[in-house]
Design a protein that fits this description.
Transcription Regulator spoIIAA; 3 domains; two-stranded antiparallel sheet
């Protein structure tokens, strides 16, 4: 059971995370609502309803849901197809939500676990760069562009027409966000303080800068679909497309949440919660969406721990919408831009830099391709190409080593000598073998063997392959070390292959272990463990 202080700290983290997420979600939901053709009101209500419903029935992770760019594009196509006929549009949206619920009952959601780390890293870094590139214009008082390419092309004009009032407020906000000591930022939500402080400053001095407009919103009404079989059959493909786009975004967000929180989500439950949430959105004339990567990652970076943050985010958006029209109107766009730039910087996957020189070139090709496609083309397309490219390059990697048979991970095989050692030590010493390549496809199975090893004092982990570890394997190895340390188990990693041994010795993940934690000879590892174990 958690103590009261722990619960209080978790709630405070969820509240801060929800606040930051709502700061991001509000302007995005307005923009996506307008872009979809359903209107700003449909966008903001979509953010409120989807975030609330999906959190209530979904995974206990800080996943913030709402309208997103890809879903807005598909919905805009549907709206254009029916010339704004809301009844027909709602029918297709309801159909898409039902398809999403059906998808959640199939094995499809589980397949997302096979996405390799370079794809996730490239996507995550791409998202961060998109935020930064798009928000430089509003930071300087310019107009936000709809794509990164348009934003980059517009930079020369932007830099010759700077609004210095906007740049001043945005610059001060960035300084507060980047340079406030951690001892203060852990207690006070710096983005919220900056938002309030800069809004008051702008109002007091009467700065001539862009602010959030004062918009009137109406409550959503229950909408009846047009039950037209011909219409449904005709537009089933576009409804399926919308369902798969929303599902893909949600699953990708889920796997990124796993990476950040070290908690494995239930993919089927995640998709089901999104489908039900989208069904409620569609039936109220609100905009469909998905689990939103930017908002969810931002919530975690701000301290969010559970799905309470998503519920709080929906609540904040609702309160702001119904009670804070006058205050919303005074928020400078440049301050929001500065907050988003800091979030974009935080989202960029910096930790990959520490292993990038040890990783195979194939991983780098995948990472760069996904990064470039994410930033300059399409998020979902980038994911698909990344997975395909990773699979092709892995096949090439195996083909280049035809003298070795690549096999899947074979749990535990003991020689008679190894069995004798385990019995002699009363199972205080365990010897595990990784047969085949330790790579992104085998990390899940390998890590799962280290969840609980009762009475064990030493693990001798033998990796007999001559394949180097890829990024996923390196981080899986780090996860194994953390798990074993938590159980007070000492690890010796045996790597007979010289090339792999040199790579492993270079990794910083072993710096927290004893100096003899990486060896090339299993017998030497057994002698060390036996000499330090009381039998």
């Amino acid at each position: 059971m958690k103590s009261f202080n722990e619960k209080l700290m978790n709630f405070k983290g969820d509240l801060f995370g929800a606040t930051i997420a709502s700061i991001i979600a509000f302007p995005q939901a307005l923009a996506f609502g307008v872009a979809s053709g359903m209107g700003a009101s449909a966008g903001i209500w979509g953010a409120i309803i989807l975030s609330l419903v999906s959190a209530l029935i979904g995974c206990n992770l800080p996943i913030i849901s709402g309208p997103t760019g890809p879903t807005a594009i598909i919905i805009a196509t549907i709206v254009g197809l029916y010339s704004g006929n809301l009844t027909s549009v709602i029918t297709i949206l309801i159909l898409a939500a039902i398809f999403q619920i059906i998808i959640s009952l199939t094995p499809i959601p589980r397949m997302i676990k096979y996405v390799p780390y370079p794809v996730i890293s490239g996507f995550l870094t791409g998202i961060g760069l998109i935020i930064i590139i798009l928000q430089i214009a509003p930071l300087m008082g310019g107009i936000t562009q709809t794509s990164t390419i348009k934003a980059l092309i517009n930079y020369p004009i932007l830099f010759t027409n700077i609004n210095y009032h906007a740049l001043l407020l945005g610059g001060i906000t960035l300084s507060l966000l980047f340079f406030t000591p951690k001892s203060i930022s852990k207690v006070v939500p710096v983005p919220l303080v900056a938002l309030i402080l800069m809004s008051v400053t702008s109002y007091y001095f009467g700065f001539n800068i862009a602010k959030i407009s004062d918009i009137t919103f109406s409550l959503p009404n229950f909408q009846l679909p047009a039950v037209d079989i011909d219409l449904i059959m005709k537009d089933m493909p576009i409804a399926l497309t919308l369902a798969f786009i929303a599902t893909s975004e949600s699953l990708l967000t889920g796997i990124i949440m796993d990476s950040l929180t070290k908690i494995k989500h239930n993919s089927k439950k995640l998709v089901l919660s999104q489908g039900v949430g989208n069904l409620v959105c569609a039936m109220t004339g609100s905009m469909l969406g998905s689990a939103a990567t930017m908002r969810s990652v931002a919530a975690i970076k701000a301290g969010a721990k559970s799905k309470i943050s998503a519920i709080l985010c929906a609540t904040i958006l609702l309160l702001v919408l119904l009670k804070g029209d006058a205050l919303i109107a005074q928020i400078p766009i440049c301050v929001l831009a500065a907050i988003l730039i800091k979030i974009g910087y935080d989202i960029i996957d910096v930790k990959v830099v520490k292993v990038i020189k040890y990783a195979p070139k194939d991983d780098l090709y995948v990472l760069i391709a996904v990064l470039a496609l994410t930033v300059f083309y399409n998020l979902i397309f980038a994911l698909g190409i990344g997975i395909i490219l990773a699979a092709i390059l892995y096949a090439k990697r195996i083909a280049d080593n035809t003298n070795v048979k690549a096999t899947q991970y074979n749990p535990i095989e003991y020689s008679s000598f190894e069995t004798e050692i385990e019995h002699k030590s009363n199972h205080k010493i365990r010897i595990l073998h990784i047969n085949g390549q330790f790579f992104f496809g085998s990390t899940t199975q390998i890590v799962s063997h280290f969840d609980e090893l009762l009475e064990t004092e030493w693990i001798i982990l033998s990796y007999n392959s001559h394949f180097k570890l890829d990024m996923s394997a390196i981080f899986a190895l780090e996860d194994i070390i953390v798990r074993l340390k938590a159980q007070k188990i000492k690890l010796i990693f045996v790597v007979p292959d010289e090339r792999v041994y040199e790579q492993v010795k270079s990794l910083k993940v072993f710096s927290q272990l004893d100096k003899d934690s990486v060896l090339t000879d299993e017998n030497m590892a057994i002698k060390i463990a036996m000499s330090k174990t009381k039998i």
